Amino acid sequence: MTTMRTAAVASTAEEITALLLDLDAPVWIVRADDRVGATADETVAAGTQVLAAVAPLPPERLGDSAFRTAHGVRAAYAAGAMANGIASPALVKAMARNGYLAAYGAAGVAPAAVDAALGELARELDGQPFACNLIHSPSESALERAIIDACLRHDVRCVEASAFMDLTAEVVRYRAAGLAVDRQGGIERRHRVIAKVSRVEVADLFLRPAPVRLLRDLVGAGRITEEQARLAEQVPMADDITAEADSGGHTDRRPLTVLLPELIAARDRLATSVAGAGQVRIGAAGGLGTPDAVAAAFGLGAAYVVTGSVNQSATEAAQCAATKNLLARAEFADCAMSPSSDMFELGVQVQVLRRGTMFAARAQRLYDTYRAYDGLDTLPATLRAELESTLFRRPLDEVWQECVRYFTERDPAQLAGAEQDPKAKMALVFRWYLGLSSGWSIRGEADRVADYQIWCGPAMGAFNTWTAGTYLAAPENRAVADIAGQLMFGAAYLTRVAQLRTAGVRLPAACARYVPRPLEDR
Predict the structure, then answer these.
(1) Containing H/E element for 350?
(2) For 10, which DSSP code?
């Protein structure tokens, strides 16, 4: 684009960028005096040859307006749950008060603490929207029940269901217990379910109504009414399904450019035969750490976007300063897969930060040991001594006694199985290390830095690259709602840039990057 001096027509990269940054105003690309430029003045545009144009695009217009309406938020953006309370009440409240949805990270938190956190959120937010995470816990079903009990007790209106491989009685109970007939005779959904999935077959479960067998069991146990069961047979299990791509924590590391279109297509196919399936919104998560990635997700058809890893370094996240500094230095390739605590026996993995910690390698060694031996008593003496001195830092018998005390309160059924099966006992002991390692990171235990389990995906590194040299480079400046605002504003700006490029406009290269700047400086 060559320089021109026609009044009210921008020609330099700085001038064009300034016009496009005013997201509330249209921009026309015009030809005047045989030169090409940009203007936001309709009168000027009317007197020239218009080559292309972009309409106003405030960040609040990105995504599906039905998501904003259903959840009572101003933007189609959510902060996903980060387990062990890392997505803290403070983080959830900050997001809610700025018009965004966020999910409290209930996974791995003791039921009493979950109950207290939900009570605090319900009391202080007083009707403002928020969600609670419900993680699939096939080896600890009592935990699912405790979380749903707490959600029902505190009238939590939205649950983010994650890591599910099949529907369970508890997620079905939550959905059904919120159904009622409205004044127009339709079905009112007081309990919204957002399902995080990475496989089409799991999405299919949430696109359909709850299985009749689970509904009948719940009715028989007196946990839902016949009327609620009848209504649950008529609506999909989820209101929203999040395509979880290459993310921190539980992930199948699917590429978003493949997974999101697959889930949208699956939804549309099922809509021809399942009533209500067509209204289920499909959102995007995983790898969303820059405005470019967020804009791309919306461009692929995402109804909303969900961020995770980038929020761990936010000021409101329940992570210690040392961990936030590690996260702020991460690059996009500084991640590794390691065994998960909650699904250890199944071989399920989570994505964690590799740089600055030895957790991934140590956790994998525990899983390999679990696969190779039938119980603690069959471990070679040298191996047992090494594990006790490096990872556990105490005799394994003492670790087992701690497991007994822990599961006696949390889920006694775990102990019953372990007493009969040496391999199950070994799994609980190894899960002790996996379970505590994230707590060491959260609390900042200095002598356990090498064992920090920090859930993290490549989005964290991309975010750090994008914010390098700006005020957001320092963790102490990373307020979670500001992160959301910057990502959404930048995505709207870059969407307008992409619209012009798609129309054949050759913009200066400098226009193709959005640099985060404080709101008052825009």
Answers:
(1) strand 349-353
(2) B
Q: How far is CA 213 from CA 146, 174, 217, 218, 231, in A?
A: 22, 16, 6, 9, 14
Q: Give φ, ψ of 161 to 5 degrees.
A: -90, 120
Any idea how long the chain is?
A: 522
Q: Which helix (H) or strand (E) holds 306?
A: strand 305-307
- Token pair, residue 512, equals 């193709």
CA dist 299 and 356 (Å) reads 35
- Helices 480-502, 89-97: inter-axial angle, 10-degree rounding: 50
Helix (H, G, I), strand (E, B) or coil at 268: helix
Helix 412-420 / helix 396-410 crossing angle, nearest 10 deg: 140
> What token pair was written down for 162?
């994650």
E strands in 152-209:
158-162, 179-181, 187-189, 192-197
Do residues 192 and 158 lie in contact, with contact meaning Cβ atoms separated by under 8 Å? yes
Consecutive 10-residue averages of pLDDT for the chain (522 residues): 57 94 96 89 92 97 98 98 95 98 94 97 96 88 92 98 94 98 93 97 98 98 97 98 91 92 98 96 97 98 96 96 96 93 86 94 96 96 96 96 88 84 95 94 95 95 97 96 98 98 94 87 62
175, 210 contact by CB (below 8 A): yes
CA distance 245 to 228: 34
Helices (H), 22-88: 42-46, 65-71
Among candidate residues 402, 405, 391, 337, the one with its CA nearest the CA of residue 379: 391
**519 burial level (CB within 10 Å; 0-12, 13-18, 19+):** exposed
Helices (H), 27-104: 42-46, 65-71, 89-97
Report which residue type is found at 4.
M
Instruction: Tell me 279's DSSP state.
Output: G
Token pair, residue 28, equals: 């026309």
- The C-alpha atoms of residue 473 and residue 204 are separated, in whole angstroms, by 40
Write the DSSP symbol of residue 302: -
DSSP run (H or E) holding 226:
helix 226-232
| Number of CB atoms found within 10 A of residue 171's CB | 26
